[in-house]
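TICKET: design request
STATUS: open
ATTACHED STRUCTURE:
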């Protein structure tokens, strides 16, 4: 599985800036893949005035992201 942007299908990268549904910017610091069929996984970002101190986990859809099965496997 890989985490991608819903609109473009491009993979998400650590250090990338993403925008949430409110229009606020955040920096991707990591993610957890879904652990079972009912899970959405999490994306971890740093944002706001204390961004250098902590990160927070969100559902990927908050940033218009989704998990897809990898298509680039050989």
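STATUS: resolved
RESOLUTION: sequence designed for all positions
ATTACHED SEQUENCE:
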């Amino acid at each position: 599985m890989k985490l991608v942007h819903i609109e473009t299908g491009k993979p998400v990268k650590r250090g990338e800036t993403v925008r949430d549904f409110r229009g606020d910017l955040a920096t991707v610091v990591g993610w957890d893949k879904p652990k079972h069929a009912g899970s959405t996984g999490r994306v971890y970002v740093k944002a706001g005035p204390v961004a250098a101190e902590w990160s927070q986990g969100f559902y990927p859809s908050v940033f218009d992201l989704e998990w897809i099965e990898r298509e680039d496997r050989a």
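CLOSING REMARK: The mean pLDDT is 89. The chain has one domain: 2-68.
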